[in-house]
Amino acid sequence: MTVAGLGCRAGCPAETVLALIAEALARVGGGRLDALATAAFKRDEPGLVAAARQLGLPLLAIESAALAAVAAACPTRSARVLAAVGQASVAEAAALAATAPRGTLILPRISNGLATCALAREEEP
Question: Which pTM value belongs to this model?
Answer without folding.
Answer: 0.92
